Amino acid sequence: MKYELLGEQGDFIMENPDLVSGLYFPLANEAGVMSSISPDLGGDSKMDQNSFLLPPVSIDNLHNDRSSRNIWCRINGKELWSLTGRSAWQQAKKFSRYKEPVVLEAGFMHHKITRISEEIGCKAELSSVVPATGETVELMKIQIQNISNEYKNLQVITAIPMYARSADNIRDHRHVTALLHRIKTTDCGVMVTPTMTFDERGHKRNDRSYGVFGGNETQKPMGYYPVLGDFIGEGGNLETPRALFESCLDVKGANYETGGYEALGGLCFSECRVAPQETITYVIAMGYGKSEKDLMENCCGFLSEAAFDRCWNETKEYWKEKVNVSLQTGDSEFDRFMKWVSFQPMLRRIYGCSFLPHHDYGKGGRGWRDLWQDCLALLMMNPGGVRQMLLDHFGGVRFDGTNATIIGSGQGEFIADRNNITRVWMDHGIWPFLTTELYIHQTGDLGILLESNSYFKDMQAVRGEEKDTLWKPEEGERLKDKENHIYTGTILEHLLIQNLTSFYEVGEHNHIRIRGADWNDALDLANERGESVAFTAMYASNLDGLAALLAALGAQGINEFQLAEEILVLLTEDETIYDDINRKKEILAEYCKKSIHQVSGEKMTIRGDRLQKDLKGKAEWIYNHIRETEWVTSKDGHGWYNGYYDNSGNKVEGDHETGVRMMLTSQVFTLMSGTATDDQVREIVKSANAYLYRREVGGYRLNTDFHEVKMDLGRMFGFAYGHKENGAVFSHMAVMFGNALYRRQASKEGYGALFALFDHCSDFEKSRIYPGIPEYIDASGRGVYHYLTGAASWYLVTVLTQMFGIRGYYGNLTFRPQLLKEQFDENNQASASLEFAGRSLKIIYKNPDQLEPETYQVHGITINGVSYQSGRQDSIIEREHIISLPEHQLHIIEISLNGTGRD
């Protein structure tokens, strides 16, 4: 069993997907509709945590619940057929030779299921889409064809449960909240408008209506089943609804009203006489409105086949244009797989890390890392608007270097935790710099560092160690100065604070404390004595990178900077302090105490060269400290970096009485940061291959089996080994391992890490997922938590900027390809189409001598057939030249690779 990718846009087709458990597909739009749909049309639809139209589902509900977007067809007044396969008799035949064939066809935000019953003599097609045009509605087109040689009388009845409230009520006051429902029928559907939202902390008047409507160009429903209990009847259920087994349908007419019950989108259409090969069509709209009028306006304009088809085509075209990165290599399946990888960051911007069946934690929104990592992909596909997005995101940084952890729905909206729960992840200061640095290189916009924003303020203070009891919520969530004015600082100041404060917050081994966790949220039990060597290495890289940006500003004549006077204590010319753990803690405490409630508002002027020296000195100290203290060697002779200390103060990795302990994260960031020496790169790869690589589960596992429930490090060790953070192939870190290897010019090894993941995920027999990358691959090889993963952003960025080597350098376009010989097509070419500097480009690499990356370099560039000479290196095109190219057309850049070796 497998799917087949079609065309160049990632559309695919698959037979009998209903025989595989746990499959689901996203349907959504940027107006806030977030649906999931399974092959039998299970799943749910919602606008947010408190506005579920269909009953909320987790992964096990997909096969355990009877609820679905079910469509029934009564044939010749007696036989009942579920178009979704949800009848009891169809379920009973599902694994027999009498199973009805089912075919799935899907692409970005559109989904179609075709079911054929030779026994009944009918074929059904159910096409589902959420309009890209922004209406808050999910649409379904129902088509039933009479494939027999006889006339048939067909009657269609929908059975779509309307939950119409918060997911919190799935078990908390489920029945009581149904009492709030006010249900009414119209001439084309059923609406439910709860009177209030139920919350024992304070009930509120409800302002949202939900509905299911249906019809076609000439027909409206002839009646309704608006109440779920009436439809299933005494002793019935949604797979054997008693109403459909009665001699006549006791339906309600239009303008019927009731309340206090679970609602049903039960629409009954008149019986139709259908000739052989004839097809009948209906459109169903399941939607939301701010009022009943708004609901009907959202939904009823789609109730014709012409309107649905127009929406279907517009939506397909919209997402096709959004996913504007295309590859052509020697592996067309990989090229089409990359379409789905490119699409996934868009899904995460819509869904956050919630609202798909596996993602049943949290109540919506995105985390701090998501804000920054999702921007990586945007910079590759749709960089317009990213500048303001980054500026707004910096408003979540606290003056103590930590950040807000509750992120609002609006861009740049950060919310104080009213429960005052201390949350500090030690890696959070890493990501803003990495994304801002990429933005600067892609755009050349160093000026963003000199833009200003405010700082986030709540009760949490001194990096989560104390509370600011003077702060009151009514003061707002922005830091103020002694004059009670909102304080603002440059983006450069924000970045310096994040990275400098982290440098001083060290544990007993002089690495940065792990606090609540680092990137691996499941390392959450080492708050007192735990340290993250892995991310300490990345802070060194950030400090080094900040110095480089300051040097670039200096080259533009910007040599002095205004910074908050409080920051002065974090800068020092006495590098002996760096070895003094207690003194570092004192410096951090002194800084934090000065700004526990307000800042002075006073600025100091500091020269760029002094800042550079300070930052580079701190970075170099970290590099040397890690190199001298954290390289471990096993009894087997393998070497790698220890990345952690546990809450007992012990080194985590290396030989242990229970076996070798190694973690992939430790190697990723020591490689990526440049901490690992060139000689150590090969040693790390050998060790990772020996202890972490398992081809049968998709590549590099996150860690070896510790054979211990390690309560002094994190909850991950309570998970069964091979699942989630405990030893699964965790896609995000596996991809970052590939990225780190490419950065260190280990092309074959980097490609191997990325290819292993692609090879496994695209093998449906193993991964059991639709195209794309899941959060992780479990011990059996199944992909889990599909679609919403930062791995997709990193995969796309790695393929374009490292594998293809197409990336900006202070705004200029540079080429440093590391494509392997096998990745070129039969014409010895490989290409990537993308946007850069507001122009659509197709970059074609030519490798006529079939050389490997270590033996070729760029030699000769043509743009639209004209030879280009930059006056710099052969591998750079000046930004000004790109901008001078005409807009609104595709420009072809051809690049020859010759055999003179890497420069």
Descriptive overview:
Helices cover 28% and strands 24% of the residues. Helix 8 packs antiparallel against helix 9. The protein folds into four domains: 306 residues, Glycoside hydrolase, family 65, N-terminal domain (Beta-galactosidase, Chain A, domain 5, Distorted Sandwich), CATH 2.70.98.40; 214 residues, Alpha/alpha barrel (Glycosyltransferase), CATH 1.50.10.10; 246 residues, no CATH class; 90 residues, Maltose phosphorylase, domain 3 (Sandwich). The chain has 21 helices and 49 strands. The protein is globular, with a radius of gyration of 29 Å. The chain is α+β, with helices and mostly antiparallel strands. An eleven-stranded antiparallel beta sheet has the order 1-2-9-10-11-12-23-18-15-14-20, sandwiched between helices. Strands 7, 8, 13, 19, 21 and 22 form a six-stranded antiparallel beta sheet that branches. A six-stranded mixed beta sheet has the order 24-44-45-49-46-47. InterPro entries: 6-hairpin_glycosidase_sf, 6hp_glycosidase-like_sf, GH65_N, GH94_catalytic, GH94_Enzymes, Glyco_hydrolase_94_b-supersand. This is Cellobiose phosphorylase. Keywords: Glycosyltransferase, Transferase. It holds the Pfam family GH94_b-supersand.
Q: Can you give keywords for this protein?
A:
11-stranded antiparallel beta sheet; GH94_Enzymes; Beta-galactosidase, Chain A, domain 5; transferase; Cellobiose phosphorylase; 903 residues; 6-hairpin_glycosidase_sf; Glycosyltransferase; alpha+beta; 28% helix; 6-stranded antiparallel beta sheet; 21 helices
